[in-house]
Amino acid sequence: VIEGRARTVEAAVHELGDYLIGQDPSRINDLWQVMYRAGFYRGGPILMSAIAGIDQALWDIKGKVLNSPVWQLMGGLVRDKIKAYSWVGGDRPANVIDGIKILREIGFDTFKLNGCEELGLIDNSRAVDAAVNTVAQIREAFGNQIEFGLDFHGRVSAPMAKVLIKELEPYRPLFIEEPVLAEQAEYYPKLAAQTHIPLAAGERMFSRFDFKRVLEAGGISILQPDLSHAGGITECYKIAGMAEAYDVTLAPHCPLGPIALAACLHIDFVSYNAVLQEQSMGIHYNKGAELLDFVKNKEDFSMVGGFFKP
Q1: 148-192: per-residue pLDDT in tens?
Q2: According to the model, what pLDDT value does residue 202 have?
Q3: Which pLDDT score, from 0 to 100, does residue 32 have?
Q4: How far is CA 172 from CA 149, 195, 197, in A?
Q5: Which helix (H) or strand (E) holds 73?
Q6: In the chain, which stretches have pLDDT less than 70?
Q7: What Å distances lie between residue 296 and 109, 174, 258, 292, CA to CA?
Q8: Which of 14, 122, 255, 290 has its CA 20 to 30 A from that of 42?
């Protein structure tokens, strides 16, 4: 569901259920098209999140009926493992450094961090200096032993984004995510032309038609569709193919739990241009309970050397 809009998405699922109940669940493509196209209004975070949840359930049903993993049903493996990176909570450098140390002990060497404290706006030179200082402290603490991307959640004003990205270059972040909002995507080609740091975006784009515009415009090097918000496995596989045609890599967005992560991994294992998989298990949810308490095959989520395997 959309974070903060769970009941709204639930209502959309019930509305779609009026059509779905009694249909053949094996006709995933047909059902998807009807869910998307039958209404006068299409797209957006609510409808596409509802479709995403249903789509993942349909693929799960098909896999269980045929006793086959979803990646096998989608044509088979294109790789035997995918590099994982972990979100690190915390807004202060000391907290981030402590979080990285803990995650390194369980095998991670690649991370994603908040780009600014308390997710504040970066709209002046002082805010730029503060963000750069945070990154400098983290790089100083670990040197080149780790890689990290920086997520600004679209909170950088367009004029300051040029300044900020230039100041970050000496610290060699793996990528800069959402320096500006998705609705300001026209800035991505301009920003990309002024830096060698890859720019990443996609979590707030909800269909291949949203991604079509940014791919045509250029500027984004790493596409990050969220399988729980962008129409599920069916739609995100198409988005991955579109990105490949533009020589853009794929790193599915996944700040959620094991079911969402499993869906992402199936896309990673069949998409040629997939390079990284985010995971945030244990960070934001399931407090007070065992992390995988509702998962039957817990071993599927074990990592080996910082990689997930099929």
Answers
A1: 999 999 999 988 999 999 999 999 999 999 999 888 989 999 999
A2: 96
A3: 98
A4: 9, 11, 7
A5: helix 70-73
A6: 1, 118-119, 282-291, 293
A7: 28, 34, 11, 8
A8: 255
Nearest residue to 51 (alpha-carbon basis) of 27, 70, 35: 35
Would you state the CATH architecture of domain 6-68? 2-Layer Sandwich (3.30)
Position 290 scores a pLDDT of 63
**Domain residue extents for the chain:** 6-68, 72-308
Q: Strand 82-87 and strand 307-308: pairing?
A: antiparallel
Q: Which CATH architecture has domain 72-308?
A: Alpha-Beta Barrel (3.20)
Query: Which positions are catalytic?
Result: 153, 253
Q: Which two tokens stand for residue 218?
A: 């250029």
Which tokens sit at 195?
A: 């830096």
Q: Using CA atoms, how far apart are residues 98 and 282, in angstroms rounded to an integer?
A: 16
Cα 165 to chain center, whole Å? 21
- Cβ-Cβ contacts under 8 Å for 309 (sequence gap 6 or more): 80, 81
